[in-house]
């Protein structure tokens, strides 16, 4: 088998796996933002597998340019996917689509107009710098949300998915910048196709090994934290739940600045992994910050409904409850109650 034939087989295998993965994601998880973004990421990656080459000097054909544009804009989808995957409250906004469209349009213009004008190096460098930027945003999102994630299997699989995709995309972008305008040869492109095929196969295997609801929750978290553990919980877990609730209700530890899972675990004198499992499996939360905010919102609701605190500014109530600024408080409050803090206070005052 020639090198070119091997490369074609590897590309075809990657495309086939990614299309099957996209179809399964659409079938099972199309109602969830993370599921839809995962399907879009798989489709964009299929376009990448079909069209990507390192250091190609020939101008793209009419059918090739849209695939390249779709492949380039996949870095935006990758960034959004990492946000949705590890933030159960993430919502797509109109400006996200505008950013995706802008990156795709720039890539398409580079293929159709800028590169044929005689200077292909600058558009190639600009496009790949954009890719590196969005990959950096995705990695930053993953790192900052790591400690708050309570779903153990999701924590493990995201290490591979995000790191493998980021490393592959980052290294390829740097290679494109380094050899822009020159030809890397068939061997380099065959190796690239083989690495991509291995990553795609590994991700597909990992996603088949875990429960899909660990990555894409099928149901919303409970609105309220139960004050008592269920009957099926063991005596040890019951004591821990009681101790945890005392910390929340009596000491109001959620008010502390920059509180982490580790801080709370040390208070309870248990390992972090056990506290994560307790909050996730016994109390139904997938994110530690959501767990904390639930208690903060309950305190804020009581303060806003209190006639004696009618003149206390909303920001003071938010800060007293443990929020660091007004914006996150307003968003969390509205997500939990359907009302802004001011609307909630007005409603309670009129009902008194």
Explain what the structure shows:
There is one protein chain. By secondary structure, this protein is mainly α. Helix content is 72%, strand content 0%. It contains 15 helices and no strands. It has helices spanning 3-29, 33-51, 64-86, 94-114, 121-146, 152-178, 186-209, 212-215, 235-249, 261-268, 272-282, 288-305, 314-321, 326-337, 341-351. Helix 12 (288-305) packs parallel to helix 15.
Secondary-structure blueprint of this entry?
Blueprint: H1 3-29, H2 33-51, H3 64-86, H4 94-114, H5 121-146, H6 152-178, H7 186-209, H8 212-215, H9 235-249, H10 261-268, H11 272-282, H12 288-305, H13 314-321, H14 326-337, H15 341-351
Helix pairs in contact: 1-2, 1-7, 2-3, 3-4, 3-5, 4-5, 5-6, 6-7, 10-11, 12-13, 12-15
Question: Key terms for this structure?
Answer:
72% helix; elongated; 0% strand; mainly alpha; 352 residues
Q: What class do helices, strands and sheet pairing give? A: mainly alpha
Low-pLDDT ranges = 219-233
Helix fraction by DSSP (H/I, runs of at least 4): over 70%
Mean pLDDT: 82
How many beta-strand segments?
Answer: 0
**Biggest beta sheet attributes:** none
Instruction: Round the Cα radius of gyration to an integer and report it.
Output: 25 Å
Overall shape? elongated
Put simply, the count of helices is: 15
Q: First CA to last CA: what distance?
A: 82 Å
Helix/strand order: HHHHHHHHHHHHHHH
The gist of it:
By secondary structure, the protein is mostly helical. Helices cover 72% and strands 0% of the residues. The chain starts with a helix and ends with a helix.
């Amino acid at each position: 088998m020639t090198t070119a034939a091997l490369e074609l087989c590897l590309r075809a295998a990657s495309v086939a796996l990614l299309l099957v993965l996209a179809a399964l994601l659409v079938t099972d998880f199309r109602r969830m933002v993370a599921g839809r973004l995962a399907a879009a990421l798989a489709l964009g990656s299929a376009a990448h597998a079909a069209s990507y080459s390192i250091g190609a000097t020939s101008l793209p054909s009419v059918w090739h340019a849209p695939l390249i544009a779709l492949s380039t804009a996949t870095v935006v989808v990758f960034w959004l996917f990492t946000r949705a995957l590890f933030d159960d409250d993430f919502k797509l906004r109109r400006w996200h689509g505008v950013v995706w469209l802008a990156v795709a349009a720039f890539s398409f213009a580079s293929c159709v107009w800028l590169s044929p004008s005689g200077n292909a190096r600058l558009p190639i460098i600009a496009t790949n710098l954009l890719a590196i930027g969005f990959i950096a945003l995705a990695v930053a999102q993953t790192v900052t949300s790591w400690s708050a994630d309570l779903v153990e299997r999701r924590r493990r699989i995201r290490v591979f998915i995000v790191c493998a995709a980021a490393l592959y995309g980052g290294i390829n972008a740097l290679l494109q910048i380094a050899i822009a305008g020159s030809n890397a040869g068939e061997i380099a492109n065959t190796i690239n196709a083989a690495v991509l095929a291995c990553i795609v196969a590994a991700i597909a295997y990992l996603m088949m090994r875990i429960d899909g609801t660990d990555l894409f929750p099928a149901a919303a978290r409970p609105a309220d934290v139960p004050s008592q553990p269920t009957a099926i919980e063991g005596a040890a877990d019951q004591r821990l739940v009681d101790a945890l609730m005392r910390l929340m209700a009596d000491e109001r530890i959620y008010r502390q600045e920059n509180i982490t899972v580790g801080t709370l675990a040390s208070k309870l004198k248990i390992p972090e992994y056990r506290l994560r499992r307790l909050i996730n499996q016994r109390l139904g939360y997938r994110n530690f910050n959501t767990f904390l905010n639930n208690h903060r919102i309950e305190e804020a609701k009581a303060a806003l409904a209190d006639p004696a605190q009618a003149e206390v500014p909303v920001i003071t109530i938010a800060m007293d409850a443990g929020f660091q600024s007004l914006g996150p408080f307003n968003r969390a409050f509205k997500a939990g109650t359907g009302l802004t803090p001011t609307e909630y206070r007005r409603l309670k005052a009129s009902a008194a």
